[in-house]
Design a protein that fits this description.
The chain is an alpha/beta fold. It is built from 12 helices and 13 strands.
């Protein structure tokens, strides 16, 4: 695990291993060790108890018998995240302390926000109002919503692209969920194209066989794509046609990077 990725997931994995090895842990000591508040540690312990790796006690936590005897609790918890949300997990590994990131799309934003909570000095901008509720049960801080019109079907705000361009001071990385109804539309597609002009890295997330037609225009402006490995046969040819090359396989996720940008002539509808 890269040491720079001091996010909530890594901290929780470390706490799980600590409790397993030592038999118990103290909230105040853990807060001092990880440089976070006691509220954050209590949130971590609550999560780990819900996952069945420890039992909270007064002022801390104690270990319980591992239901999968002989298996490292650290590896078990990491495996659960990888299996449940493999693309969101790999996307979260791209973020480092101090980054300004944009999480576009309600499902992706909620999953990544949980994985990113705890990264120091992280600032998140999003079009997903659902992040407000995520803040209630994670140590997530520094969340800003775009504003705009709310679309209940897509569960996102739209119509914010021009305003963001006028007010944003720069985005280190944007993560854009290309999901949605393949036979429908996505209200924020134009906003996502505007977003790509403000970010150093624009990473598209594909987790379904089909995407809304409007998102194919967004694809033209991305620098990278993370794709569920099981969708390789469905998407590889299209991504190559749009100027991407497969870089590497990371577990259940394929990474494609922009090899070239298409010219206006080849990208015209």
């Amino acid at each position: 695990m890269p040491r720079s990725l001091h996010n909530a997931l890594k901290r929780r994995l470390s706490i799980a291993e600590h409790v397993r090895d030592k038999g118990d842990a103290n909230v105040n000591e853990l807060a001092e060790q990880y440089g976070v508040t006691t509220v954050t540690i209590r949130t971590d312990l609550q999560y780990l108890e819900d996952q069945g790796y420890l039992i909270r006690s007064f002022g801390g936590a104690r270990c319980i018998d591992d239901p999968a005897a002989g298996t490292d609790a650290f590896s078990l918890l990491e495996s659960r995240f990888r299996q449940a949300y493999p693309v969101a997990y790999q996307a979260a590994l791209q973020v480092k302390p101090g980054d300004h990131v944009f999480l576009a799309g309600s499902v992706l934003a909620q999953r990544m926000a949980v994985l990113l909570s705890g990264i120091p000095e992280l600032h998140i901008i999003s079009d997903a109002p659902a992040l407000v509720s995520v803040q209630n049960h994670t140590p997530l801080e520094g969340v800003q919503l775009t504003g705009g019109i709310y679309d209940s079907a897509a569960e996102v705000l739209y119509g914010w692209g021009e305003a963001l361009a006028n007010t944003c001071r720069g985005i280190d990385c944007s993560f854009i969920d290309l999901g949605g109804d393949p036979d429908g539309y996505h209200p924020a597609s134009k906003d996502y194209i505007a977003l790509c002009g403000l970010s150093d890295r624009n990473i598209g997330i594909i987790r379904r066989p089909g995407i809304p037609a409007a998102h194919l225009r967004v694809l033209e402006h991305l620098t990278e794509v993370l794709l569920l490995a099981q969708l390789k046969d469905v998407w590889s040819e299209t991504l190559i046609e749009h100027g991407f090359q497969q870089q590497q396989i990371q577990g259940q996720t394929l990474q494609f990077k922009r090899a070239r940008f298409r010219t206006a002539a080849t990208s015209a509808p």
